[in-house]
Design a protein that fits this description.
The protein is mostly helical. It has one domain. The chain is built from 13 helices and no strands. Helix 7 packs parallel to helix 12. The longest helix has 28 residues. It is globular, with a radius of gyration of 19 Å.
Length: about 250
């Protein structure tokens, strides 16, 4: 059932679309171009030895995986209310199945990332082997938050209007279009620790480091961020399972 629901979402996304899979590539590519213009050209931020377009695309690739998974998992109980109210099955399948589409889109974007690495002759190094770890950490954090949001949205539908605003805020509160090194140069030291409490700060930087071999990583903050993603995933799943008994009565 998990496979069927997940692949259903993937097929629906590409059904009756003119550009098809190109939409998956265009979204992070356009976002990367905007970040390259704003942060790279106008703000004059540095991206090391990597062209800013490639630098920002790597960040957008990880961010899109996180944001699309979070949004999909948060809305899935409402969009599938007809199933929840009529058929009994483990409800946790629904938010888990919502991750199929973002993962497939991530795979398409990852192919373009490889093409960019070849074009610009960028050698990421051995850290490239940790790409699955970085992607999985982002996925678990997104699903964990999505479990929590979807269980609450069953009763409070206005949460659907809050989530897009929160995701948009996180985009700029995370080093997607800029690096942690650039942030450290411009933000006072006393505020940097507050910024790093956002687990996405290190996870996005870690993800980009695995692809490009460049980034400012602290093992302590990395352990914290990965630990938070695992803890949020487990706690979110536990909360969801605890709340699912009343879903059919409320939805």
């Amino acid at each position: 059932m998990l496979w069927s629901l997940g692949m259903r979402d993937v097929k629906l996304m590409y059904k009756q679309t003119f550009l098809g899979v190109l939409w998956v590539v265009l979204q992070p590519l356009i976002g990367a171009g905007i970040f390259a213009f704003v942060f790279g050209l106008l703000a004059g931020m540095q991206s090391g030895e990597v062209p800013y377009l490639v630098f920002s695309f790597a960040g957008m690739l990880g961010w899109t995986l996180f944001s699309a998974t979070l949004t999909g998992a948060s809305m899935v109980m409402v969009t599938n209310s007809h199933l929840v109210s009529k058929i009994y099955f483990p409800r946790l399948i629904l938010p888990l199945s919502s991750a199929f589409q973002p993962v497939v889109n991530y795979g398409v974007g990852f192919i373009l990332m490889l093409v960019l690495l070849v074009i610009y002759r960028i050698q990421p190094g051995l850290g490239f082997l940790l790409v699955p770890v970085a992607a999985l950490s982002l996925l678990m954090l997104a699903l964990g938050i999505g479990f929590w949001c979807s269980s609450i949205m069953v009763r409070y539908r206005d949460l659907r209007y809050i989530i897009p605003v929160g995701v948009q805020f996180l985009l700029y509160a995370s080093p997607v279009g800029y690096s942690l090194a650039a942030l450290n140069e411009r933000v006072p030291l006393k505020y940097q620790a507050i910024y790093m409490l956002n687990p996405l700060a290190t996870l996005i930087e870690f993800f980009r480091w695995t692809l490009l071999g460049e980034g400012t990583l602290s093992l302590g903050w990395l352990a914290y961020s990965v630990g938070v993603s695992v803890a949020v995933f487990i706690a979110g799943a536990f909360l969801f399972r605890k709340s699912e008994r009343g879903f059919a009565d409320v939805i």
